[in-house]
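Hello Y.,

Per our agreement to keep a running log of every chain we model this quarter, I'm adding this entry. I've kept the format consistent with earlier entries: sequence first, then predicted structure.
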Amino acid sequence: MSTSTEVQRDTRFFGHPRGLANLFGVEMWERFSFYGMLGILPIYLYYQVDQGGLGLAQETALGIVGAYGGLVYLSAVIGAWVADRLLGSERTLFYSAVLIMIGHISLALLPGLTGIGVGLVCVAVGSGGLKSNATAIIGTLYADGDERRDAGFTIFYMGINLGGFVGPLLTGLAQSEVGFHLGFGLAAVGMALGLTQYAVGRKNLGDKAREVPNPLPSSHRALAVGGALLLVAAILVLVMTGVVTPGNLADVVVVVVGVISVIYFLVILTSRKITSDERSRVFSFIPMFIASAVFFSLYQQQFTVVAAYTDQRLNRSLFGWELPVPWVASINPVFIIVFAPLLAALWTKLGERQPSTPMKFVLGTVLMGVAFLLFLPMVGSGKNASPMLVLVGILFVFTIAELCLSPVGLSLSTKLAPEAFRTQMVALNYLSVSFGTAMSGKLAEYYSVDDEAPYFSTVGGVAIGVGVLLFLGIPFIRKLMKGVH
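Predicted structure for the entry above:
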């Protein structure tokens, strides 16, 4: 009996394979460190030096945060390719976790923009590699038709949100009581714990997790390594010569991801390996790709505009104690933990009567726009005067919008994928998230606490407009989807 078969029959972790515990743990600690770091990153960048920050202009700081998030999702595409062609998912995940830990240590120990540059690149590339491969490995723990599979992914999903909840609470407390570098240090410790427990239990994952599904021919490997080194060298030259700067990083990431996305679509649509029905389905994905990018350009502002709003406009006083700014980042994971099972149960109960996938995209995009319009009643209320409960309500709308669109996006990309381009279609879904996240940084450059109404009304109104256009196009889109619901 192969080790993969033994793994799939294993029931030692609450009736699931023991390997699920390892993946649950490494993902929980990775999300702890990722969201913990992201909670304090924007204020670290724009707080003045005497407050422990770097003193960057706020628009530059928020642009960097958005660009960094965009690079994480772009790296997920790269991580999937490395796993498929070079190392296999298990080894790619392990090396990615090591890279994340190095990144957090750099943020904690290296001073100024050097620490930011080294740290964010390592964390972005590592998080992308871990994100794309943890899910793939979970799939190998279960045999085809195993009824435990959905429950296994649900347990894994809870690990993500548990880490996302606790991370900002602890790093935020460390930052407010001691300083930023202790906060970044806690993120490093969390990742070290996750990496340690994963390394100890790697043997529980079986042979299938280590397979390289589509190995790159040995004659092409030198070319791949050479290309990667050339790319790194080109990026270093662009940074050192001042072509790419902190101020224009968000613009660069938006353009790069946009160009890559267009190339991906063209490669798939012009391929002779796909049928006319498959080509039609790829065309149907284009408006959903646009809606997803618009959605995430607003949703990911939790870590740009909403972070600045929390710092400068929100009344965080609670019984005479001021809540740390990053604590607001823990609200969304709580709502997800509570409401994700309820919404999933609702879709299941509705069965064939539930909204179609394009309609769910409409709901997600429109609700996201509405969430931004809900900031308008608080415009002009003064410095740190907006009520906490109102922001909690707005983040609840963020969460319901997310649950309408985000989980179905990945599923849709697999349903519409041509047989010859399954991985690439999943990559396209990640690219829509990458583009939107980078845009969340670019848009944040136009936000000002002194003149909020034009920003919130424009951004919210555009998202609602995109949702309405998508709604009007549903009959045409469903025709292109050729029977996919």
